[in-house]
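Dear support,

We are seeing what looks like truncated structure output for some complexes. This example has three components. We would appreciate it if you could run it in full and send us the complete token output so we can diff it against ours.
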Amino acid sequence: MTGLGGLIVRDVQLAFRQGGAAFLAVMFFLLTVTLFPLGVGPELTILARISTGVLFVAALFASMLSLDRLFQADYEDGSLELLVLSPLPLPLVVLAKCTAHWLSTGVPLIIAAPVLALLMNMDEPGYPVLMLSMLLATPCLSLIGAIGAGLTVGIRRGGVLLPLLVLPLFIPVLIFAVGAVEAAINGLGPRPHLLVLAALLMGALALCPVASAAALRLAME
Amino acid sequence: MTGMHRFANPTRFLRIANAVLPWFAGLTVICFVAGLYLGLITAPPDYQQGETVRIMFVHVPAAWMALFVYSVMALASAVGFIWKHPLNDLVAKTSAPIGAAFTFLALVTGALWGQPMWGTWWVWDARLTSVLVLFFLYLGYMALWQAYDNPVKAAKPAAILALVGFVNVPIIKFSVDWWNTLHQPASVVTMEGPKMGNEFLIPLLVMAAAFKFYYLTVLIYRLRTEISARKIRALTLAQVEG
Amino acid sequence: MSFAGHNLDCIRGDRLVFSGLDFAAEPGHALILEGPNGSGKSSLLRVAAGLLRQAAGTLTWNGENVGGDPDAHRARLHYVGHLDAVKPVFTVAENVRFWAGLRGQDDLDAAAGNALETFGISHLADIPGRMLSAGQKRRANLARIVAAPAPLWLLDEPTNSLDVATTAVVRDLIIKHCEEGGVVMMATHVPLDIPGEDVLRLKGTQPVAVDLDEAV
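Here is the complete output from our reference environment:
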């Protein structure tokens, strides 16, 4: 594999060989969701009421767990310099790395989500929309997160700063992702929510790699 | 070294700043006195909200300023980033804590106003929630500046963050409004009131002017401090180098 | 082919690293950067690679401004910095193959095999990066510039942690690259005695106050 494809394969391989990123993300997702029945109480109606929100907030944290390593590992061993110096345009390099991040953390979360929804007693009509909405939301998280990861690369304690920078930016994604599932559960059409979510994804695809690439260039100086 | 004169000190800016500073400070005081007099004494109590309506004269300008200062920050960041004018980086940096303070003031007065109106200190009203998120954006921006040892290196990453945040502000506002209409029927009284008479509008505008002049005054003070800090840094560095 | 810098200024943080610097790297003549620690050798190489933006001045390749087409400039250069960019969980061959593939090299197995042989590390091909010594890592790093050819080499202390024999290999490679018309710019504290080398001497840095005046 050469070029961008090679970069995606390499990053996914790295994610799996260095401590199984997918496993960690799903475990974190599972543990966080499990805490809610233990904290709120096992009453099924309450769990069903909060299930969507809990699932998405937990998924958001789980996908953020590995974000600070998105560029930091490459920065520390000098690979980032060479990635910046590759003949490929830097925003495309960032896009490839986001794709790999999504494949190694976002996709496992999507697969795990229905099982966790079961644990949270989510109402049945929500399931297909939950998958669809996760499918649109998780790439947004990787893309928006890449800005934060780019801005904090090379900073001491950047991993602590990263959530502070990106969590506020995740809010629109959270609102529309949860809104879609709730709408489906309440028998309303989830379509408008999903369309806005898709629009957010398109916007993130266009803007985030550019912003992140600009931040990475600064980190090289 | 031939190029050294290009890295000179900001004497011209300081000359202009020092000349306008007393005017801004004076206007701040005049507008505050006039605005508070009009708002607290002349303006009648609202037929619906009673005396609590007077909180609006602080809350609304503070919320306006929260957004205004963030816009200034974003604009200065863009100019600093694209045309590499370091003074603009400083404007963005020094504006952030002032803007964050306005945002905090808007949140606190919102809570004070909410208590008598809704019977609770905090309501997840769309406006207050958006202001809260804006407050987080300010904090993140300030934290990013703090994270760098060298302020010169922090300027550009911070500029990117300010611009990313600025692009996101309308999206966040839109999504929070959407979220709010889904979860709350629109029966809650909002801060704006249906129609505002002149007896409310004039004090409000005077207070808004007071807030704006206050911002400019404090901004110049903070810029002067920041420039002095940079000079001290440069002198210390020169000493280290011998 | 020639690579040159004209009237370059470089500022890093509060330091004016160099100012009004000119250099010309001609094919066949390796350009050796000399100077004490902190004199800006690394900075100049990073500027030449485009990792660091110069505060003023231009870089040219065959007389054309490099800034006009940065993608093409990156495609023509190899940069070797202080870090070796060897992933601990990838084998040596995987590491070299990845970097060669990123630069569009087609026959990765042959290219990587040949590169490893050049540095005498074919026997390490299937060993993961985490088990390598500093010298072996450096050889794996240098192997990537053999695996995907590029005309411009920017080398920052390439012989660090290498033994005498491998240093000679690097020297031979540089001589060969020069003979084939390649351009080499290199900072090194080990005199390599490349035939026909040019020397650029760099002086120290000095602090600067950032200009706030121009903004008003």
